[in-house]
Structures are given as C-alpha cells and as structure tokens.
C-alpha cells in the first residue's frame, strides 16, 4: 500500500468537524426515525427534508439514510485525522493519499446543497429523485484532478449543481422511468454526460481551475502490499466507500455500522424501505471479493482497479428490481465483478488527459447495468 507522510500540524477544516457534529446532534435529538414511506410523504416538513438531504450522502450505495451517511463521514474524518499523523491503522490512505479529503468533502457537500437549492422542487410530489448525484461525481473529481483551494472547490460545486443534477434528472424521468430501466443508468449517465461538458468548459476556460493547490510537503512512503488474505479483506471493505472517492476502510466501516444501526431502529427506513439490506450488502461484498480476486494482477500492476463498480450499480439495482433470491444476488455479483471493471478501464484509458478517469467508471456502470440486470432477471426467473 502506498502511504504518505503529512505534517501533523495540519487539521481538517473546522467547518467539516462542525458539520459532522451538527448532523450527529440532530440525528440523536430527533431519534424517532420514520420509515421510507413516511419520509417521502412528509418531505414538505423541514426535518424530513433535512433527513433526505443527509441521506443523499449514503445514496450512492443505495442505502439512503442519515445514519450510514453520518457513519461514512465520521469514519472518513477519523481516517483523515489518522493519516495526518501517519498512523498505520488509517488503512488505505483516504482520497488515494492526495491529502485533499477536506476539499473533496467540502466541494461535494456544497454541490449537494446547491443542488437542493436549485432542484429541490422536484421532490414536491413526494417521489424519489436523484438529488444525490453531485455529492459523488464532478465536484470531487475536479478537486482530485486540479487540486484543492476555494476556486476549484466552488467551481466544482457550481458545475455539479448546474450540470450533473439536471442531467440525471432528465435521464431518470424521461428515459429510465418511461422505458422501465434501472434508474441507476440515468444517475450515472447524467454524471458522465455532465462531467464531459464540465471538463470541456474547464479546458476552454482554464482560469476557473488554474489555482488549484495540493498539500505541500507530502512525501510518499512506499510499502509494498503482499496482496494476501488480510489485504484482500481490507480492499473489499474499502470498496464500499470508493464511490465518493474515499476508498478507505474506516469510512466504509462507519457506513456499514450506520446502516446496521438504521436497520435495527427502523428496518423499513434504509434502502428505500425494501427490507433487502442483508441481501444487498451480501451481494455487494461478494462482487468486490470476486473482483479483487479475479483482477488481483491488475491491482498489483496498476496500484488501483475499479472493483467497486458493481457495489454501487449492478448488484443493488438487480436486487431491488428482481428480489433478494440467492440466484439474483450471486449472479449479479459475479457478472458485475467480471464485466464492469475491465470495461471501465478500457473507457477511461481512451479519455483525454484533462478529463478525470471516473467518467469511464460511471459509463461502465451504465452499460454494465443495462446489459446485466435484465440477464439476471432471466436467469433468476429460470432458476
């Protein structure tokens, strides 16, 4: 694993810690959690709308609940803090060891909040809408590609709210729903199309992002992983937080512990009230495990490989559409692990240098989901 040494005097911005503290306090004070149907029926109420917005942070994993969202953020904050001090138990260095996690989180959160300001009216009917997409797409990708600082952070947040969210809204409502396609195709399709447009704009107007900065004084410390059993299990866990660009075991652990607590408190609240959380998580873990094992040589050669893709697309989409039978869980996990990662790498390798490679990942999610989820239904129906 590649780790970095970061001066211990650095601290996560106080605004991040304040946001986490406020979210946790609100969650604890208002501890009577509604189920998903109650939440969507009361979105005109401030507390329900706040819960929806916070739940957007864990939506990319299909959990949609404030407790896994809070767990994800608290785990990520702990991982960043541990990384500043060089503790080995930090796990895989968050945000790929760039030291940019505070800026990634800030840009993503601003993009999410701006999206709700601009597009929150689409929730007026009480139906689901992809309001979460800006949190796990362009804002973070721009920070990782161009560096930190307020100019890049705000530019990414603005473009995420102005381009990504409406693109996904259009694809979901005017393509996926009429054609009865998994809505994840519209979610990630909107991310891809809008991000291409955004990076073309940044190339045309480089002053928008030319002042990006990276933490000074970072010295890579190379520690060759053995890619053994422990590394494999750590990698599977880290894949659960890869979609928001965290890729860290502590962040993933917080996400999953928050999901467990949400299921205990209100079983019909997370995962859209489907009560398929166990099957979903089992399929997600199996997909990552199969991917990490099958593509181990790629991990060794490249240092990183997108084995997380089925976790946030194919597997949960198949489970929600076709049910939680073991045939659905296993088939979607295995096919997703075999097909989606190499497709993503093939697409990303053909992108120009001024575009972040995550575009290939989300396009792979769209194409793989479109091909595999119907096939899973056929196999599950014939079994």
From TrEMBL:
The chain crosses the membrane at residues 12-33, 67-87, 99-121, 127-147, 154-175, 181-202, 250-270, 276-296, 303-320, 326-346, 358-380. Keywords: Membrane, Transmembrane, Transmembrane helix. The keyword Mitochondrion does not apply. The keyword Chloroplast does not apply. It comes from the Bacteria. This is Integral membrane protein. It comes from Pseudomonas kermanshahensis.
């Amino acid at each position: 694993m590649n780790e970095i040494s970061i001066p211990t005097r650095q601290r996560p911005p106080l605004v991040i810690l304040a946001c986490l503290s406020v979210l946790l306090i609100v969650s604890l004070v208002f501890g009577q959690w509604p189920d998903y149907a109650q939440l969507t029926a009361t979105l005109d109420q401030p507390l329900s709308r706040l819960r929806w917005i916070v739940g957007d942070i864990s939506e990319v994993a299909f959990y949609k609940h404030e407790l896994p969202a809070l767990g994800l953020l608290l785990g990520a904050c702990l991982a960043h803090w541990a990384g500043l001090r060089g503790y080995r138990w930090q796990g895989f260095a968050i945000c790929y060891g760039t030291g940019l996690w505070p800026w990634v989180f800030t840009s993503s959160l601003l993009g999410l909040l701006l999206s709700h300001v601009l597009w929150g009216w689409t929730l007026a009917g009480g139906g689901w809408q992809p309001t979460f997409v800006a949190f796990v797409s362009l804002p973070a990708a721009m920070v990782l590609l161009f560096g930190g600082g307020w100019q890049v952070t705000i530019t990414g947040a603005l473009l995420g709210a102005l381009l990504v969210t409406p693109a996904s809204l259009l694809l979901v409502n005017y393509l996926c729903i009429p054609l009865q396609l998994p809505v994840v195709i519209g979610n990630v399709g909107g991310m891809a199309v809008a991000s291409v447009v955004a990076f073309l704009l940044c190339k045309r107007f480089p002053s928008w992002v030319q002042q990006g900065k990276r933490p000074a004084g970072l010295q890579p410390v190379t520690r060759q992983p053995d890619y053994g059993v422990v590394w494999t299990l750590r990698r599977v866990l880290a894949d659960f937080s890869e979609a928001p660009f965290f890729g860290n075991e502590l962040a993933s652990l917080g996400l999953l512990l928050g999901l467990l607590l949400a299921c205990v408190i209100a079983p019909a609240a997370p995962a859209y009230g489907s009560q398929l959380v166990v099957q979903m998580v089992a399929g997600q873990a199996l997909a990552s495990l199969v991917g990490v094992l099958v593509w181990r040589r790629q991990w060794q050669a490249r240092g990183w490989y997108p084995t997380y893709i089925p976790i946030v697309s194919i597997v949960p989409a198949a489970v929600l559409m076709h049910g939680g039978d073991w045939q659905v869980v296993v088939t979607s996990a295995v096919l997703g692990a075999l097909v989606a990662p190499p497709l993503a790498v093939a697409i990303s390798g053909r992108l120009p240098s001024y575009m972040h490679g995550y575009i290939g990942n989300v396009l792979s999610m769209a194409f793989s989901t479109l091909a595999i989820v119907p096939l899973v239904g056929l196999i599950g129906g014939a079994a």
